[in-house]
Specification:
The chain is of the alpha/beta class and 436 residues long. The protein has 17 helices and 13 strands.
Amino acid sequence: MRAVDLIEKKKRGGEHTPEELDWLISSYMRGEVPDYQIAAWLMAVWFRGMTSPETAALTMAMVRSGQRLDLSGVAPFVVDKHSTGGVGDKTSLAVVPLVAACGVPVAKMSGRGLGFSGGTLDKLESIPGLTVDLSKERFIEQVRRHGLVIAGQSADLAPADGKLYALRDVTATVDCIPLIASSVMSKKIAAGAHGVVLDVKVGRGAFMKDLASARTLAEEMTRIGRAAGMRTAAVLSSMEQPLGRAVGNALEVREAIETLRGQGPPDFVELCLTVGSEMLLMAGRAGTVEEARSLLQQAIASGTGLAKLREMVQAQDGDPSVIDDPDRLPRARLTELVAAPQDGYLAAIDAEEIGLAAVQMGAGRAVKGQPIDHAVGVVFYAKVGSRLRRGDPICELHLNDSALAEQVRRRVLAACAWSEDRVSPPPLIHGIIRGS
């Protein structure tokens, strides 16, 4: 085979065979196909797309580019959870311990934040001492002993994805559903769980801006999971406004702890119950959604979910006293209230702009590898649909640089829209897609 022939085939709308995709990915990993040819092929895929069988074949070729964890000896069923990324999305920090407290082991590999979307690893590293860099052996042993783990993605798992993504990032081919689906699912399949629940975000603060694209992506990923023999389900959830109240690493950890204590914001609690229920149903721990929700609510009420989070923190060398005293988390030096400029109903909060405001304060990265400030962020007192009078607090900024206060305040206010008429909050859950 020759790379140029595969580029030509895709350029003209042809469909690759599994053997062609295997050859292309393996040859690229061996250095026999150069970046410029893969870049040309990626652009051809962006324009011409891929069929579902092609996307599944590409995914498995990427899985075979590295090692694949075997969790079959850990438990009869191990579940994973993945989010496509959003603003204020600390769901894993609450859902993973809740599901584990219900008796279903959870093995999750996560990533870091880039741009307006926060990363689970960055949030966890707000906890003093906690490590997310675990060997494969320690990852597996923690699932076996404690029933839960959240760690960084191993470079040995689906390494072709890392190389392809680096090229996609600089060739304007990131926003391609077959390439997104194969990227996500190659890592999930390689990580070894028996099933995965995908939280596919849609809206201003998500990478999928419209529901049709988000649904297409979710359906593609569930098909890939089914083809690979992995149980897969997808929750389509709104990211029109920030999730919960807190945006920022330590602030979100605090909110996850509050949620496990039974004091979480309604929208965040609802998403946790929805995603967690799908995980319990998938594992056979519950027979109905109602039963699954009841089990999760019991884990909150009894404190077993909070105890599981404490157990995970300790197992990963973190300070478990943070769970009982969140004031031990990093705290910003300055706080400043942002007040409503007028009477009215809060009609919209642009989640992407709030995420970018948090990045401006130092909570996220503008470029890969940039250090972050775990303490800074935004805590909202009002959500879409809230009735406010002029001067009422919308949110509180947590900053370590007073020079940024006025810029961020203006940015947050510009992200808010107002109405004289009553406004209903946007729907949180747009649907659930169950694969197998």
